[in-house]
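Recap for those who missed Tuesday's class. We walked through two folding examples back to back. For each one, the amino acid string is listed first and its predicted structure tokens come directly after. Nothing is annotated here on purpose, so try labeling regions yourself before you check the end of the notes.
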Amino acid sequence: MATDTLVRRTPAHSTARPKKQALGLGARMRRNWQLYAMLAVPLLWLAIFAYWPMYGAIIAFKDYNVVDGILGSRWVGFKHFERFVESYQFWRLLKNTLILHVYELLATFWLPILLALGLNMARRRWYRRSVQLITYAPHFISTVVVVGLIVVIVDPNSGVLNQFLGVLGIGPIDVLSNPDYFRHLYVWSGAWQTMGFSAIIYLAALTSVAPELHEAAIVDGASRLRRLWHIDLPAIRPVAVILLILNIGSIMSVGFEKVLLLQNTLNLQTSEVLDTYVYKLGFASQVPQFSYAAAIGLFRSVVGLALLVLANAFARRFARSSLW
């Protein structure tokens, strides 16, 4: 009689490898210290030039004087904010700042998009590269040089603009001295300078579009305009929305250097904005009003932050794209 053999079955060994224990922050920093060393320099710059100056914003709530210093100066609360809101300059400065930035936003926001779409649809590589070079180059010209070129071009005596108008039988026009021309001069010269470089972001977004989408659309008989509308534009819409939000957030701050350089006593009616007014109060006046200037600057920053939050909320609700 054969005896039954008892076989002891051992549990099967698991093939899954044990999970590695997560490294702590210190271990990760020691392992990748080169990356953190590279990050240290921009973080140090950010701390010194972006966050540390925020400490000085408290002088907006004080009657600051150099002798007592920031901490020793007397607290006055919202005195300087109330003074600015009640001053006769408030509405003029606010109107000039808003009109200039909104005009710039409406006139120039769509230009880089059109340029990027046109370059993306261009078939000849040499043509595309030539246009890119010509449109990118003005970005690398300093603001001072750009203003110098503007002054030379619109000079009422020897400028190219007035020479051309003279050929047409139109008398010389002193553009820089006329407040009606200041906003147009500022906005469209800025469009010429920044349009090409701003298009880089949209060109980068267009590279994410799969070529198969265009090939399928061509097979279906879609025209070039149809493909642009249904394929290219949806690809760059999230990027355009984010850039629009950022532009709205900076609506209370315009290009200070360019406005100041184009400004003169004859066009102050439209060229005086919050940035230049703060500069004149804090540094260019015979008796600097540091606390008053800081209050105006802080007011501008708070309004800009509020507009940024509102624009982000609208974009998240209606465009399904936002910063946060």
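Example two. Treat it independently of the first, because the proteins are unrelated.
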Amino acid sequence: MSPELISPRSPRVTAARRLARRNFRGKDRLFLAEGPQAVREAVAHGTDTLTELFTTLDAAERHADIIGAARAAGVRVHLAADEVVDDISTTVTPQGLVGVCRFVDTPFAAVLAARPRLVAVLAHVRDPGNAGTVLRCADAAGADAVVLTDASVDLYNPKAVRASVGSLFHLPVAVGVPVEDAVAGLRDAGVRILAADGAGDDDLDAELDRGTMGGPTAWVFGNEAWGLPEETRALADAVVRVPIHGKAESLNLATAAAVCLYASARAQRASGGCRSVTES
């Protein structure tokens, strides 16, 4: 078997490669999903999410199940030379599979209409790796949605997509929402707003001990370097810090987000919480 695409200059390769740039992603409403996990989840997402798949011969053999599922879903699969897939890929060590996907974000109004009980709001997150990792944490903790405000990084940045490890396709994500609108909309939907900040007046352990975290909750996370600005902190019902019991100076954003989201998930699943104990 020989690859059908052998030139990095072919029109299809050129069109895919340009999706590494935000302006082209926005214009085409397409983005790249790289690696077997992301591509597998894109296929499973359905609704024609995956439009094209570029694969090396070696990757096609190693991931025959993914290739078969893509073809069964009507996705056009391109067998390409290694250098062609490498040229499309944005990673240092490409894994031989690169998918072209349609945007999958959800309107904020639809997030609110679903009456969410646990939401992560990325208010000023600029690092795409952190954004994708927080999305993954939210997915793992059973959050109902993630909101990226208009001050945060592009959801479809290749680094953010990779860091989400497929979670991008698992839960609703709203993008481009002003933080004031996000907070107001969630509060009107009956969601308590907690801002996560290392200088917060409230302690996460104390919140748990008081039994105040069992209801619908949105966690607002800020910038990696300087946290949340005062005007954003002022929007919250409480500003909560994760207690540092050891000698560490602080926690990074993704770690703090994981702690906060899992604390809410545990409280909501406890007796009296807003989720059933038996709910998955």
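Answers for example two:
DSSP finds 13 helices and eleven strands in the chain.
The mean pLDDT is 92.
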